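Morning!

This is the sequence you dropped in the shared folder:
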Amino acid sequence: MKKKTLPIVNIKLDKVVGGGQTLGTLENGKKIFVWGGLPNEIVNVQVTKKKSKMLEGVVTEVFTPSKDRVTPKDEESYLSTSPWQIINFESEQNYKAALIEEAFELHNIVLPEKIEVYSDNNQYGYRNKVEFSWYWNKATEQLDLAFFRRGTHGKIPVEGTSLADPVINKAAINMRNLLRKKPDVRAFMLKTLLVRCDQAGDVAMQLYVKEPEFIKFTDKEIESLKVNGFELIFSNPKSPASVITKRLQSWGTTNLTDTIMSIPFTYAVEGFFQINVPIYEQALKDMKKWINTDKPVVDLYSGVGTIGLTIGGEYVTLVEINEHAVVEMKRNIKALEREKAVKAILAPSESALEHIKKDSTIIVDPPRAGLHKDVINKLLETTPERIIYLSCNPVTQARDVAYLADKYGIKYHRGYNFFPRTPHIEHLVILDIKKI
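The structure's back. Tokens below.
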């Protein structure tokens, strides 16, 4: 059965919404969520998804551009990686502040101070990790790096991304060029290429392939990549994600080390670590002001422990569900010689509620879904004096703060632009128990 072609519609766009798209209303009253457009623009939109109550689409032509529009650095691929490259940076900052405010207003919460979104104004070259896909270019009959086209399953060939540290793009191109020299390698054999660097400029790389018999590389070939470490990894083709099924080859130093708040952290290429370290450090500095180091600290959803181990004081409990993150966490605890005072707990936060105690400062940095209901109930039951809540999703953060509002008030808040030129926002809220 032939797939139905979706229409192109002409529309005036209204406002930026929480997911980063711009909202418009069609003549029939249906809402359409659009990538590549800005408020007050008149545009043509290719519909990519049609549901009963709403549509999604991508701008194909701009007739009346916004005064905030700028030319994207990655004109062909920006929608795949950073759809806000079309907005001038001052407006991006303003949109992010407005989206934080809107998220809290939806739950009838008025933030006590004007919303500030911190940035170091480093808009490009900040990412220390990029995952590329692969594409067989029929026109050139050669292999290309690629990203997925937003809103489709198609791919777009790329030479890299302006968001990445330049050493990442160089290493990725080196791998592409190496694979191009192998006449039997085609895109269908490959899954992804994961490239990561630390602040010192050291690079480690993992090539994920779909065949366990994939031919290994010679030392000379790997040396041509000009990386510090390399792994060839078979990843089960039935899984859409780049999961490690079997490590086929390892060369050089495959772990990286970065210093956060003067404390070194070692992590694997595929491991949990911050993408934009300078902005993260500023968030940590802001959080540190609210921690009483004489009290024990419980760090939930702790990843590899970069919050608790840097600003948590002497006695810290780290709770994390991902076993690989906990392995890295324990390695870092041992390297810091803090095994006696720091506990690493492998568990979902909602299954480690016994660690939430009244005399502890609680730090939470949950995934986009926000806090588990059982965690919220335990906080309300035990009433620790202070909760430090860093969120990658102000919408679910505002929901959680509303649940806690009977007993907790907002003492401080600040936004962070961890991912410039994208819609992603981080927001910190300090919650203190209300005085009776």
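Headline: The first strand starts at residue 8 and ends at 16.

More detail when I'm at my desk.
O.
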